[in-house]
């Protein structure tokens, strides 16, 4: 094995192997292995060389002394353990092949010959009903087709083969796309099997806000779903909402209480600053680990941007409260109306005896447009965040808000969509979206864009504001410039530039700048020894530790404005790392994270589906209130599907599990998932 530089990345070359049906063998005269190099495959963990890798698309060997018999046994063992049992080829075939390989590696006479294994492998691959069965024999068949002599050489000794070190990792495209790495096929399996409480348990292992996520998640998992190559992606978000709505409250609380480790000593206290999705997730996972957690927030209620930034027609606030209340139910405390930099500092928290601090501050300060006339606009001009806060107060009955005339919202993200749809409900006569790029470039959830259009919002793309027009400080209009898109760059992104002389005026009574957010009170936080990066976000390392020992951070204050599910994933990661830092003084190596990085860095997950007959069955959609009715109310637009529809949707999952396995020189350290 040797590593060669390629584009600044260490590329590990293959000794022999097969990938996507193509054989590579550096031992041959043609040395075809030079045609396939892998990034960062030299070591699995520090000083621990990767000797072989087996996957759904083939295998690679980096150490010619590796035992393929033993490696394939462990691979098929993982596949057999994951089989759902719905079809005979996968349920029985994987077990028969696994047992035969086990007998071979023990030096015993196997019940199957190599030809029998080939026959069984082909049956498993061609007739299994799910992605696991259709792919788990690919590497096995490739070995016996192109490198059978290697197996025969190992078996010729008729002696036990020494066990090798390594690990197996079972995943799916939807799992890898999810920031929280929720086992999507598993929770779908439980719904299909009539066990919704078990399905909820799969979700609660990753985050506490399942019903919230089931309403506002942007569905990275569905974007990766292979079912879309047949008809439409599985309604993963729809099924999540169904389970959460059926099993919330006492069901969720009982499950999470059963997950709590033995409570730690009273001195094991952690402070969480920010009661948004990142802070709630971090507090939740720390409580499950036995810590005593206090959550500080400048507001008077939990939820952060989910509370004030997502209108109630998308996320009812009682649903959100039901899930954030789990922090108190598990023994944590909320300390509201407490602002970092005003009421306490990081120094204060450590002085009070907290062993660590997590900053989940979010980004609640709107960005400016930077155009002429902005400083003079005092009436009718809002940032997207400020406007949504006023909408929140209006719905809560704190401060009524009524709009008249025309409203222009600048921006193309989810905040912009929330602003335009809220403006309609507040009485605006006409609402416009102004976005500097094309409709296809809009980062907002496509479903939100379509919902806005159904409610009568007008979209003006390749258009940007050049000046805000005011009269005695009151917004009366905006000057717009037409934009021109360039050719796509290497990453497929087009730059845009103004078209000279294309300025036009548009009348408006309210202008909302929904173009971005940033961390509030940055200088005050920096004075506590917390460094910021050049984007004015809290700077963290790979384990979410900040520049100050014992202080971790995650969510929007680290990444910039992102999604709820990314924030919750950061909370989980931070809780895991805070636990290690307190208990061990350092953060452990996490082998599953390393395997995920190997897969991602080398684009191991193929984009196409496995060729197998699948009957067309289009997805179930959440029932919705008619656009003409809903645009006059803040009540929830989407409704939950019923049990019959949920069962029908689960049948569409193709269970695209994939098994990945590495053989290493030394044992892999035992870390968490």
Automatic annotation (TrEMBL):
PANTHER family: GLUTAMATE SYNTHASE [NADPH] SMALL CHAIN, GLUTAMATE SYNTHASE [NADPH] SMALL CHAIN-RELATED
Official protein name in the record: FAD-dependent oxidoreductase
InterPro entries: DPD_II (IPR028261), FAD/NAD-bd_sf (IPR036188), FAD/NAD-binding_dom (IPR023753), Helical_ferredxn (IPR009051), Nuop51_4Fe4S-bd (IPR019575), Nuop51_4Fe4S-bd_sf (IPR037207)
Biological source species: Rhodopseudomonas palustris (strain ATCC BAA-98 / CGA009)
GO MF term list: 4 iron, 4 sulfur cluster binding; oxidoreductase activity
Alphabetical list of Pfam families matching this protein: Fer4_20, NADH_4Fe-4S, Pyr_redox_2
Every NADH-ubiquinone oxidoreductase 51kDa subunit iron-sulphur binding domain range: 69-114
């Amino acid at each position: 094995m040797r590593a060669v530089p390629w584009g600044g990345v260490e590329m590990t070359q293959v000794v022999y192997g097969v990938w996507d049906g193509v054989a590579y063998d550096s031992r041959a005269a043609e040395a075809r292995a030079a045609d396939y190099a892998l990034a960062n495959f030299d070591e699995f963990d520090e000083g621990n060389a990767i000797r072989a890798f087996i996957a759904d698309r083939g295998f690679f060997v980096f150490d010619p002394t590796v035992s393929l018999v033993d490696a394939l046994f462990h691979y098929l063992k993982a596949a057999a353990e994951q089989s759902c049992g719905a079809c005979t080829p996968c349920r029985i075939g994987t077990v028969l092949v696994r047992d035969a390989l086990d007998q071979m590696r023990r030096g015993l006479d196997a019940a199957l010959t190599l030809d029998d294994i080939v026959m069984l492998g082909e049956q498993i691959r061609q007739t299994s009903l799910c992605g696991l069965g259709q792919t788990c024999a690919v590497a096995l068949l490739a070995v016996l087709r192109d490198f059978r002599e290697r197996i025969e050489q190992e078996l010729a000794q008729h002696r036990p083969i020494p066990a090798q070190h390594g690990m197996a990792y079972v995943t799916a495209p939807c799992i890898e796309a999810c920031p929280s790495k929720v086992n999507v096929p598993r929770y779908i399996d439980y719904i299909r099997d009539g066990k919704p409480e078990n399905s909820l348990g799969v979700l609660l292992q990753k985050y506490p806000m399942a019903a919230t996520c089931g309403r506002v998640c942007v569905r990275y998992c569905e974007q990766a779903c292979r079912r879309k190559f047949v008809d439409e992606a599985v309604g993963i978000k729809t099924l999540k909402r169904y389970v959460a709505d059926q099993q919330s409250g006492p069901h969720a609380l009982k499950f999470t209480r059963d997950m709590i480790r033995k409570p730690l000593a009273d001195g094991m206290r952690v402070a969480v600053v920010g009661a948004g999705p990142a802070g709630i997730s971090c507090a939740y996972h720390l409580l499950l680990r036995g810590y005593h957690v206090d959550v500080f927030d400048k507001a008077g209620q939990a939820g952060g941007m989910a509370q004030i930034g997502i209108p109630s027609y998308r996320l009812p606030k009682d649903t959100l409260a039901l899930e954030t209340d789990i922090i108190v139910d598990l023994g944590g405390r909320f300390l509201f109306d407490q602002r970092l930099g005003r009421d306490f500092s990081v120094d204060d928290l450590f002085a009070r005896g907290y062993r660590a601090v997590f900053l989940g501050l979010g980004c609640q300060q709107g960005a400016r447009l930077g155009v002429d006339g902005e400083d003079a606009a005092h009436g009718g001009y809002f940032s997207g965040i400020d406007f949504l806060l006023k909408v929140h107060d209006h719905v809560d009955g704190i401060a009524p808000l009524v709009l008249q005339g025309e409203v222009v919202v600048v921006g193309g993200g989810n905040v912009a969509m929330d602003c335009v749809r809220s403006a309609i409900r507040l009485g605006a006569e006409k609402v416009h979206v102004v976005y500097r790029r094309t409709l296809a470039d809009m980062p907002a959830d496509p479903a939100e864009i379509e919902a806005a259009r159904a409610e009568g919002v007008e979209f003006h793309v390749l258009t940007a504001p050049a000046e805000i027009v005011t009269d005695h400080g009151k917004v009366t209009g905006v000057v717009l410039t037409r934009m021109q898109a360039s050719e796509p760059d290497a990453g497929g992104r087009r730059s845009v530039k103004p078209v000279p002389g294309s300025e036009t005026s548009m009348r408006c009574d309210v202008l909302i700048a929904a173009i971005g957010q940033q961390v509030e009170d940055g200088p005050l936080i920096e004075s506590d020894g917390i460094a910021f990066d050049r984007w004015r976000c809290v700077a963290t390392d790979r384990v979410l530790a900040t520049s100050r020992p014992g202080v971790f951070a995650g969510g929007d204050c680290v990444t910039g404005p992102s999604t709820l599910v990314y924030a919750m994933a950061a909370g989980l990661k931070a809780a895991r790392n805070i636990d290690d830092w307190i208990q061990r003084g350092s953060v452990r190596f996490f082998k599953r994270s390393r395997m995920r990085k190997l897969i991602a860095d080398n684009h191991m997950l193929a984009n196409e589906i496995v060729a197998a007959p699948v009957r067309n069955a289009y997805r179930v959609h959440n029932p919705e209130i008619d656009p003409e009715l809903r645009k006059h109310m803040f009540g929830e637009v989407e409704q939950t599907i019923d049990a019959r529809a949920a069962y029908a949707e689960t049948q569409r999952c193709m269970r695209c599990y994939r098994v990945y396995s590495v053989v290493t020189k030394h044992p892999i350290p035992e870390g968490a998932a």
